[in-house]
Model the fold of this input.
Amino acid sequence: MARRRECLQIQADGGIRLQPRPESVSIRAMEQTQALEIIRSLAKGADPATGEALPAEHVCLQADVLSALSLAMEALQRAASAQKKNQGLPPSTGKPWAPDEDQALVAAFDAGSTIKQLAAAHLRTNGAVRSRLMKLGKIDPHQKP
Done:
């Protein structure tokens, strides 16, 4: 997919316009932690590159911009927290079960696969596989794991 060669430009009248991005401006991927540090710095009234105080008339010190920066910080913190929480979980955690996946799960269970083997094969947690097998009527919900 080709990257768009445009950027937003704030006009003197406060309006925003989509402009062609100058060739000298490069866009690179940024880690959430780096973005959070930049936003924190701006919200504290400091230049993220130098740490120096922003001039009193700087746009980042306006009340509505400070509110937006605060919301952005909260969103990035929530995303980082969720990412940390999900670290180490199988890739299919939380995804819906497809009918063909249910069929494969039941077939492998009926063939003698263990919950642990099924979890590894379906990239899900042991608890998710056990719950799904209960829902599909293959395991008694009152039976201990």
